[in-house]
Amino acid sequence: PNGHPSEVQNQLQPIFEAVAMANVATSAVQAKAMGFMAEDGIVVMNAERRFHVARAEVVRLSEQGYLSPPVETHIQVLGRDTAAAFGIAVTQFLDGNFVSEYDAFLAAQFAHVLTGGDLTGPQFVHEDYLIELEREVFMRLLGETKTQERITGLLTTGKPLRN
Fold it and tell me: What does the alpha-carbon distance between residue 8 and residue 6 come to, in Å, rounded to a whole number?
């Protein structure tokens, strides 16, 4: 987008909805289509080869002189108005029984981070601000019993728990 807040919101909306509704990809092809994986991302079909392929990729990048990307100092976030718009979408998902109560709670936390926290309107922030905001929310969520149940469920069954 050209950076106008309404265009940025239109770009964020499908990402927010996918996360809010706990959509998961069942394959690498689907993950790419959903925007969860880069189009040029490496796909390894044999699970036992993942480590080998990952190691080879790290070596390749190192030999090519890979440098980590520069720190983003000018990231546009949209503030409380967009968080409220996302909140309306979550309420509709909840009313339509597309998400659980806890999904809705998590979606609100995600919207808070995605839109820059408690900012009154669109503005530009440093990536460190967003990382700290994400860390605060994540640490708070780790204290929630239902979050712990979801983590345990995913680690034991390999499938997301919708509690």
Answer: 5
C-alpha 117/C-alpha 78 separation (Å) is 9
Tell me the C-alpha distance between 116 and 76, whole Å.
9
Crossing angle for the helix pair 80-95 and 5-20, to the nearest 10 degrees: 40
d(CA 83, CA 85): 5
Helix residue ranges, H only, the chain: 5-20, 28-33, 50-63, 80-95, 101-114, 127-142, 145-157
Q: What is the pLDDT of residues 11-66, one digit of tens each?
A: 889 889 988 888 888 899 999 998 889 999 999 999 899 999 999 999 999 999 99
> Is the distance from CB of 44 to CB of 50 less than 8 angstroms?
yes
